[in-house]
Design a protein that fits this description.
Layout (H helix, E strand, L loop, with lengths): L2 H8 L5 E2 L3 E3 L8 E6 L3 H17 L4 E4 L2 H9 L6 E6 L3 H17 L14 E3 L5 E5 L27 E3 L1
Antiparallel strand pairs: 1-2, 2-4, 3-5, 3-7, 4-5, 6-7, 6-8
Helix pairs in contact: 1-2
Length: 166
């Protein structure tokens, strides 16, 4: 993955570079946040070919790493490993739609990861082995640091009946 290979996916979309990430326009504050797993430059390119067109076409706020070097840095950090894409969903219904649609698209593209794949502090979703989600706030609505739990204790998970666990 080179800068030019990333640019092939992002050159026609108004991303903002902030040093580590390429962030698409749109609200990034949300309750439920999605992550899409990729941990090598080659893996990123394949997943990007599915995830980025979906997010861009549907004007979904999201971010991704801005270089192969940054992706490899994530792979070295146990708490960040695999978080190549973050998708911000406006509400529970949009989050569920994004989870289900992306899982199907990744599965259909045969971009399936083994069940041992995990993202720290997130819960796995679907058949592709690449989608993960977590609640990004505490019970009072303030941003919460990733403490290894995908949601605050006492909060109902609206996707638990569809999740693959984790």
């Amino acid at each position: 993955m080179t800068t030019s290979s990333i640019d092939a996916f992002v050159s026609d979309y108004p991303y903002h570079r902030d040093g580590f990430w390429l962030t698409a326009p749109g609200p990034t504050e949300c309750d439920w946040k999605l992550h899409v797993f990729a941990d090598t430059p080659e893996d990123w390119l394949q997943v990007a070919a599915v995830v980025l067109p979906y997010c861009q076409t549907n004007r979904i706020a999201h971010k991704t790493v801005d270089s192969a070097e940054k992706l490899l840095q994530l792979a070295q950090n146990g708490m960040q490993r695999g978080k190549a894409f973050t998708i911000y969903s406006g509400d529970i219904f949009q989050c569920l739609q994004n989870l289900q649609t992306l899982d199907q698209l990744l599965y259909d593209a045969r971009l399936i990861k083994p069940p041992v794949t995990a993202i720290y502090g997130d819960r796995a979703f679907g058949r592709s082995g690449r989608l993960f989600y977590r609640y990004d706030k505490d019970l009072t609505g303030n941003y919460r640091l990733n403490d290894g739990s995908y949601k605050p204790q006492g909060l109902t998970d609206p996707f638990a009946h569809l999740s693959t666990g984790g």
